[in-house]
Amino acid sequence: MNNKGFIQFITVLLILASAYQLSFTFVTNSVEKTASSQAESMYPNSTVQKDSFESRYLDSMSQEEVYPGLGFTYQECKENELNLGLDLQGGMNVTLEVETPAVIEAMANNTTDQAFLAAFEKSKKEYLGQQNFVDLLAKNYEAENPDGKIVSIFYGKGLKAELPNEYNSTNEEVFDYLKRESESAISRAFEIISTRIDKFGVAQPNVQRLDNGRILVELPGVDDPQRVRDLLQSSAKLEFWKVFPNYKGFEYLEVVNKIVYGVNQLNNIDNEELEDAEKQDNQTTKDTSTSKDGDLFGDDLLASSDSAGSDSVQKSREEIQRENPILSKLVPNVANEGKNWAQSAEIGYIDVNDVEDFKGYFTRKDVLAALPSNLHFKFGFKPIKIEGKDFIALYALKSGRAGQPALAGDVITDARPTRQDDLNLAVSMQMNQEGTSVWRRITKEASSSSPKECIAVVLDDQVYSAPTVQGEIPNGSSVITGNYELDEATDLANILKAGKLPAPAKITGETTVGPTLGARAINAGIISLAVGFLLVILFMIIYYGKAGLYADIALLVNLVFIIGVLAGLHAALTLPGMAGLVLTIGMAVDANVLIFERVREELQGGKSLKMAIKDGYSGAYSSIIDANITTIIAGVILWVLGKGPVMGFAVILVIGILSSLFTSIFLTRLLIDNDLKKGKETSFYSSFSKSIGEKLNKINWDFIGKRKTFYIISSVIIIGGIASLVTKGVSTGVDFKGGWSYVVNVEDASTAQIKEALSTKFTDANTEVKTYGSSNQFKVTTSYMIDNKDADAGAKVESALVSALEAFNVSGEDILSSSKVGPTIAKDISVRSTWAIALAIIGMFLYILVRFRNVGFSLGATTAIFHDVLVVFSLYSILWGILPFELSIDQAFIAAILTVVGYSINDTVVVFDRVREFIGQNRRESDQSQVINKAINSTLSRTLITSLTTLLVILILFVFGGEGLKGFTFALLVGVAVGTYSSVCVATPIVVDFMNRFKK
């Protein structure tokens, strides 16, 4: 081999570089072990104190030099260590989507242009996140109003400098401006969210901007999902409002009460005959029980009643509720046993379950027409307990001109947690010069009134506090009270400091993995990696002798390279990534198998060992390069179009293939040539493998002659699969249909019992329950509230889950992992997956066409790909519900399909290369079918050995890789087995059929 010195230099350099990158991980692990051991010795019986000590210790070490000799600090080492994905270390992954329509709606400034409004509403309904919203709006506006001029909607509202031709600006120019503004809003949102995360205090957070207004946030080690949701989704729209006295607010509620009661009376008259008929049938639908808060308010009203009988009291309570549909649901904010209104801003308190009804009342047109235009009913942000139930405060806020608050929150320059007293925390704020001036005037007016007025601090349309102003505040300081925990006060201060989001950002996808499940995943991955590596090492030594040992050395170096490159790229090692690492072990020796089998052939042909090695390597290069490039095509497509952990699998796969090419071809050659130079002999056999090889070489099956039999076998499986898909369908994962997914520990329960319990809470929703690994673990998937965009939707679903399973003693700690895929993300994943498979097939077709310059080869390879994909889909559908593990079509399945596509082509190219070689050597042979048949038989040994090593490690991954990889590895097992079959029995016979038809 030429350039041996250069190869040696590169190898040593890569080993040193990889070792250097991995050394940071060893250093940080050493520091963290010290922190853990000290915490254990100081607080052996307190997990909370132990965790707190570890956190403080590591924080104190952040700027300390911990890398001997090189002087890197712990923080610098941490930034360069090998990252673990959230599925391995636990944490939270969130996909946010900035609502571009809200940006455009705000810029339109309450326009009444009907053509624009119609186009806008249509665009909102059609918008699924896969395209630019402004482009969609432009298309729909042109369809609604082809001759319309949209400039009249926007010009004169601060856009004059941006429109090149002022009033004469074309629609295209206006839409271009809207695009720039929406893009700017997304960029600002990304910066604000990044600032919030930086102050959140999580080690190594990751914030990435994705396409179509989406932002990815990864937070390792987070154990409070709702806190993260609140932090990310808060718009930070801070406002200061004047407040109507609570008694005045109650008077306005009486007006609303009369209107609603009157409408209800009309409805009752219309339905009177129906009600009479129902009474005659003794099937009354009237609810004679009192509402939760009706009792509280009803008791107040009934306290002065002289009625003695229980029947008359019950009747009186019912009458009160019927005549007071609003007031009967209010617990008034009174003092002195109801004799006086309390000296605070709250009108009263409403059951949290009635809040949405009240909001509906307050937005009715007849109600709005009867109330002052400067009145705005708002609710508090934090429920309080009344007789064990959650209630929320109601306030009557007073706006200024054009419905605006007294002061907007963009005047805030600083915010920080502060302690009001020994027990309670608050958030103090400081204003800029303009805000200080306005604040001085507002507080002076409020404190000068008699009685003194309240000022409400409103964040994201919720009242956080409404203190009575005791005096003028001249220095621009203010405080938000609320009996906060430290985390709540810190997060609120960070949100206010980071600033207001230019548009709402809603969570469209999230995944939470608990530390327990993460630890199990790490253990499963390490066991799979170790067992797979050990078996491949033993097999190569047993089958190829000393040459196999050199292949094993190359494999070990290959692993070091892969992990070193991964650390250098600051990429995360995920569970699918570990699966890719295990798969790479099996596929890495494929190149050596091709080389060693070729060397064996040359030795059997009578060549010397030196010439056999030289010709064996050079003869195998073409097959190796072609086979690996096709797999790289699939890997790159998956890398570009994949998301999250699936992309981690693709990263490992691509890095592994490139690294394997170097170690398998150059490093093993270097070791073998070194033996030759020293006069030592390198064996390519063992006594065991020599006899097997001889038997394989004697095989002469008529693959081409029996091709119709193979076609029939494949057709039966595929037709059976299609019939199953039509009649039975296939299980689609939450990735494709959207929904919530939870892994929950439930003791002593069956799937049927859990599903029945959940049906009481997850109403009007598709809910599935499946066993997940061990007998007490279950996977719950539901569509309940998946379209709800409220910030607390996730908490409500989780609360409903725990509440439904209370009978089985389930608590929040029993939820091991959770994930959410919103409708837009699910649609995006479906589109990306379709494109990924289509592009992979097109890429394979074109590459085979270029390399073999024959359409027959391309058609054979492409048909084999379709064959393999259809067989895997068919078996997934046929076996769904039969096998004792989950078979779902999700992102991991698509990754498996693309890997199968790459592997199938890999195997097919090896056969095609030998077919091309045999055809070139036997051009004068009249029966080319027999020539091709001989070529197929000559590749059987290498085809079977490469498939065997790959199937071996996939089987190890299937057995030891954990429940989360079962469906993924099953698809790989089926795909690799079917790919091996199709490369010999489908792809090559189709080439023969095409050649025969072309001759005719």
Description:
Helices cover 60% and strands 13% of the residues. The strands form five sheets. An eight-stranded antiparallel β-sheet has the order 3-4-2-19-24-21-23-22. Strands 5-12-10-17-16 form a five-stranded mixed β-barrel. A hairpin with a 4-residue loop joins strand 3 and strand 4. The radius of gyration is 35 Å and the shape is elongated.
Provide the descriptors you would attach to this structure in a database record.
1000 residues, alpha+beta, Gyrase A, domain 2, eight-stranded antiparallel sheet, five-stranded mixed beta barrel, 35 helices, 24 strands, 60% helix
What is the percent of helical residues? 55-70%
Largest sheet: 8 strands, antiparallel
Low-confidence stretches: 269-313
Give the overall silhouette: elongated
CATH topology (fold) name of the largest domain: Multidrug efflux transporter AcrB transmembrane fold
CATH 4th-level superfamily of the largest domain: Multidrug efflux transporter AcrB transmembrane domain
Number of helices: 35
CA radius of gyration is 35 Å
For the record, the CATH architecture of the largest domain stands as Up-down Bundle
The strands making up the biggest β-sheet line up spatially as 3-4-2-19-24-21-23-22
Q: How many structural domains does the protein architecture include?
A: 5
Question: What would you call the structural class?
Answer: alpha+beta
Question: What's the β-strand tally?
Answer: 24
| CATH class group of the largest domain | Mainly Alpha
Mean pLDDT across all amino acids: 82
Termini gap? 47 Å
Strand content: 5-15%
